[in-house]
Amino acid sequence: DDGNKILCTAKNAVAEDTRTAHIKVVDKPDAPYDVKLIPGGVDEVRSIMLRVQLPVYTGNAELTDVIVDLNAVVVNMQQSSKLAIDFSNFEKNGTVLLYTISSGILPYTCYAASVRLTNDYGQGAAKTSRIVRTEEAEPTSGPANVSVRDIDATSLLVTWLPVPLASRNGNITAHQVSYSSPHHTSRKRSICYNSKCFLESQQRIPVSEGLSVELRDLQSNTKYRIQVRAINGAGYSSWTSVDHATKDLDGGSSPMPFTPPPGYNILGAAGMKVDETHIPAPTGTEITFAAGPASDENGPVDFYRLLLVDMGRVKNVSKLHP
User: Fold this and answer.
1) pTM above 0.90, yes or no
2) Where does residue 75 fall: left (phi above 0), alpha (psi -120 to 50 degrees), or beta otherwise?
3) Partners of 161 in the beta sheet?
4) In this structure, are strands 295-296 and 127-128 parallel, antiparallel, or unpaired?
């Protein structure tokens, strides 16, 4: 009760006198009547509103603190944090207390709170909320280990590993593959894992089989920039990129661009042609060309070097004097 009134009467043969005393019984508070976690508040993804309804009996003393044990399930692991929130920091609406928790809250994570009330005489029993989950956020990293393998001269197989669990921030529902070359604008393929896929170039496949895609009808002997990103309910991850060149139509790998060794200057011999009539194959081939300028701003030409290049590698070097 809020208190009891005690009457004390002293009496003798002559007279009597009465005094009144008020005794207040104090104790630890009861457990909260109700505790709820509501995703949102400042930020629906990274904050949670704590709602505490006070009990009828608070121990006949002013409440001083609210002790909150916040439990989260993060990537199949249990994490717990304890908050001691001063009672004055709560927003009060009658018997309801409101407080926004924003420190350390993660997206797409399940939380439950256990709340105890305290006064000057101790800490009361706990009341636990139901489990709630915060909203999704965009993945914080892209797919890992994107690799490309040749199927034929105009087809490639692109494979990748999933976004790490801690970076998904939600349920990955699709991957998107973009591919482009210097001669073609970017094209996209979307691989979706649910029945409500609305992305361009839709292709629905089971998620267990969704970490690869075949790119067909490409140009042979062409370098492509291939990018892969993951998609969840909140948006897109960053792109993970890799460069790959398709093969020649004859089955060989694409030639690599040749860069002259340091210290050499290409002056550009003109009219170069190959003449196989003078020296029959396979013993040799005669190569003729018209000499370039006799000099340039760096000085006169001392000699020409004839480099036989196969697949980007120098196979033979000949020194030719003017």
Assistant:
1) no
2) left
3) 144
4) unpaired
